[in-house]
Amino acid sequence: MCKRACSTPRQRLDLESRRRQRCLAKCRNEAIGETPLAPPLPRVLHDFMDPTTKSRPRVVSAPRGAPTAARRSVAAPTSPSPRQTPPRTPPLPDDRFVGWDAGPDPTTAVCEYNVEGDWELRRDVAEFSIGGSSQCTISIPGRALSARHCLLERRAHKLRLHDLDSSYGTFVRGRKLEGSADLSPGDMFTALPMTFVCLNEEMREHRPTLFEILGSGAARCPDWVMVQAATGSGPLLFTGEAGCDLDRLARAVHAMSLRRSRLPVEVATVPQERAAQVALVQQASKTSLILPLEGKEAPLDPHFVSMLFDASFGVRLLALASGLDVARRALSDVGIELMQHVPVRPLAYRSGEIEKLIDRRFGERTFSLRAADLTPENQDALKTYHWPANLDELREVADAIMAHATRGGLRPAAESLGISHQKLQRLFVRIGLELPLFGRDA
Fold first, then answer.
1. Which residues, 6 or more positions from 353, have their beta carbon under 8 angstroms from its beta carbon?
2. DSSP 8-state assignment for residue 236
3. Which residues have C-beta within 8 Å of that of residue 312, sequence separation ≥ 6?
4. 32, 75, 272, 438 - which has most CB atoms within 10 Å?
5. Can you tell me the distance from the alpha carbon of 116 to that of 222, in angstroms, rounded to the nearest whole number?
6. Which residues pair with 196 in a beta bridge?
7. For residues 132 and 139, is the Cβ–Cβ distance under 8 A?
8. What SS3 class is residue 419?
9. Is the predicted pLDDT of residue 105 greater than 50, yes or no?
């Protein structure tokens, strides 16, 4: 019973309405795994991840025995951060699956959330300081970090995080760090205003694949998917057009997951016999089931679907579909509501990333030139092309460019690719590429 006295029925109704709204908001946050954050500070450098309510400059005490004049007030920096940290911390699901049994799982690097690249944490080093000072192990100047912001200390196969009396604080899952906190791969922490993710070797290996397939501006950003993969076992639904590499994305998620010690189970179709369906679920127990849903006009057997979503069977479903309508028809509305949806954008909406993707393919093939070495006209052609076959077509075009550059002509390039020179010429014409492909300085 509320201790506040409500004198009129209207006041009691308003109070009950507010209580119901708070309850619904709490349940919604818990359902999607979001951490409610406090509003940012007025007139103080902040970030959307800022959970602090500090509004005054922090007074830093001088070392014991120092004169009083040595004490100083450190005002908040005024230069804006060049990068934004995420508005929400990716959820850490409450999963009934215990984990994997392939041995220790040490953190070997940290990365900034949703920014490519990472900082290696060598196994033979016991402590790593993070801050704006050049004396820090991980020195990040110009990002509004304190000179020595926080410290990572190796404790067996975990990292222990300490704040070093920083100006804006260090936060773990939206709470200001008091004392220390132990971190494992997939855990996140914020050295305000930057947010970091702890990585193991599998996450370091497959994280670039997520950036390649999803892109930095995706609705479900690459690091959101990575944290889901590394810390949970909930079912995921990947949707996208043909050529968007949904199968590669599902394999990368499994390879970063707690179930990576077992090979994933991949099937083209679901067997019709009930006994075969049960055998498939048993085969996928404690691993991932990668299930394409295309071409299924009728819904899947409801009994089979119920086993996929029953935690007691221990299956992590990674479903692939061209769209939500296809997935709903196969798995039902109830099944879709239990899944996290990861849409993959077509390349037509990623024109600003085409050169980076081309360069990635060049790098994989140890090709010395880059997209910037193409003539300006050919660079524009790659950016304005609509890429109907998405990543499949981009790899085909990149391979054709490399073959032409290394072989020195259409006929030898086509021969190395196993196609006719007329087909190679039509490919260049379709994209809008003109010879010579590269500038004179290349």
1. 215, 216
2. E
3. none
4. 438
5. 10
6. 112, 189
7. yes
8. coil
9. yes
Sheet with 194-199: list strands edge to edge: 119-120, 109-112, 194-199, 188-191, 170-172, 175-176
115's tokens:
């920014």
Question: Which residues partner with 154 through β-bridges?
Answer: 159
Non-local CB neighbours of 107 within 8 Å, separated by 6+ positions: 121, 157, 158, 159, 183, 184, 185, 198, 199, 200
Count of CB atoms situated within 10 Å of the CB of 160: 16
DSSP for 146-185, please give it. -TT-EEEEEETTEEEEEE-S-SS-EEETTEE--SEEEE-T
Q: Is 314 left (phi over 0), alpha (psi -120 to 50) or beta?
A: left
* DSSP-derived 3-state class of residue 287: strand
Residue at token pair 């000179």: 147
Which architecture characterizes domain 233-345 according to CATH?
A: 3-Layer(aba) Sandwich (3.40)
State the sign of the Cα–Cα–Cα–Cα dihedral 349, 354, 360, 366: positive
| Phi, psi torsion values for 350, nearest 5 degrees | -125, 40
Residue 252, pLDDT > 80, answer yes
Closest CA to 60 of 149, 144, 133: 149
| Cα(374)–Cα(351) distance, integer angstroms | 16
Report the CATH number of the 109-201 domain: 2.60.200.20
pLDDT tens digits, one per residue of 292-339? 998 666 899 999 999 999 999 999 999 999 999 999 999 999 999 999
The β-bridge relationship of strands 158-163 and 150-155 is antiparallel
Two domains, one topology: 109-201 and 233-345: no
Judge contact between 144 and 81, C-beta under 8 A: yes
Strand partners, 289: 265, 317
* pLDDT > 70 fraction of the chain, expressed in percent and rounded: 76
What is the predicted pLDDT for the residue at 83? 52
Q: Where are the domains of the chain?
A: 109-201, 233-345, 348-431
**Dihedral sign from CA coordinates of 308, 311, 313, 316:** positive
Residue 47 to residues 155, 215, 242, 350: CA-CA distances in angstroms? 30, 22, 37, 26
The torsion angles phi and psi of 296, rounded to 5 degrees, stand at -100, 100
The pLDDT of 385-390, averaged and rounded, is 97
